[in-house]
Every structure is written in structure tokens, then in C-alpha cells.
Design goal:
The structure is a single chain. This protein has about 120 residues and is of the alpha+beta class. Helix content is about 30%, strand content about 30%. The protein is globular. It starts with a helix and ends with a strand. The relative contact order is 0.13.
């Protein structure tokens, strides 16, 4: 319940009071699964729990998250691939905001406190 609430999902008060995984909690979990491209079952399985934990950590830290997948044209694994992320500021000046390795799972994640808002560089 707590992680879903921290992420902005509404849980009925009754379900919170008695710690019930009811219809409202299941609905919130399905919406979370849809947003994170996880098969919508409404069940807190291992994949959903891991995604929920990652999302809650980012919200609690107050930092931004950049994530994605690497697909090679031939379907091969991008093992050992290193990615660098830059924020382009006014006049084209670039600031490196993070780097990540795709490892052999084709996923990458960068958590950073630097970002751009309306052409201004901001840090948290």
C-alpha cells in the first residue's frame, strides 16, 4: 500500500485501515503495471514488486530516472555496452548527467539529480 500511495495511486481508506489487498489496491496495482509495461494481472508478483520498489526508491530520493532497453538490429545481446547521458543547455552546451552499462539484460537505468527545465539547468 505505502509504495503505491507514494507513487500517487489512490488506495481506499478501508483497505489501508485493515491492510486489505482489496479491489481498490488491485486496481491501483493494475494501473502501475500498465504504466510500467508489465502484464496487467493485479497480482504483486516478483517482477511487479521489483518495479514498484525501484519506482518508490526514485520518488523517495527526489532524483530523476532515465531507463530503457537496448535492441540490436540482429537481436543480439549488447553485452559490455556503455551509455553516456547528456543534458544540452542553452547555446548547445552539454553537461554529462550519468552513465550506465546495459550488461547482458539489455536494460539500462540512470538515476540523477541533474535535469533541464525550460532551458535552465537545475540540480537537486
Amino acid at each position: 500500500h505505502n509504495k503505491l500511495r507514494k507513487l500517487g495511486y489512490t488506495i481506499p481508506e478501508h483497505e489501508l485501515d485493515v491492510q486489505l489487498f482489496g479491489v481498490g489496491t488491485q486496481d491501483a496495482l493494475r494501473r502501475f503495471q500498465k504504466k510500467h509495461k508489465i502484464f496487467r494481472t493485479g497480482i504483486l508478483d516478483e517482477r511487479t514488486r521489483a518495479a514498484l520498489t525501484r519506482a518508490a526508491v526514485v520518488v523517495e530520493s527526489g532524483k530523476n530516472r532515465i531507463e530503457g532497453r537496448i535492441y540490436l538490429d540482429d537481436g543480439g545481446v549488447a553485452k559490455g555496452l556503455k551509455l553516456a547521458f547528456y543534458s544540452r543547455g542553452f547555446g548547445g552546451a552539454e553537461t554529462k548527467i550519468g552513465e550506465a552499462g546495459a550488461e547482458d539484460k539489455r536494460f539500462y537505468t540512470v538515476i540523477t539529480s541533474e535535469f533541464k527545465i525550460g532551458g535552465r539547468h537545475a540540480t537537486s
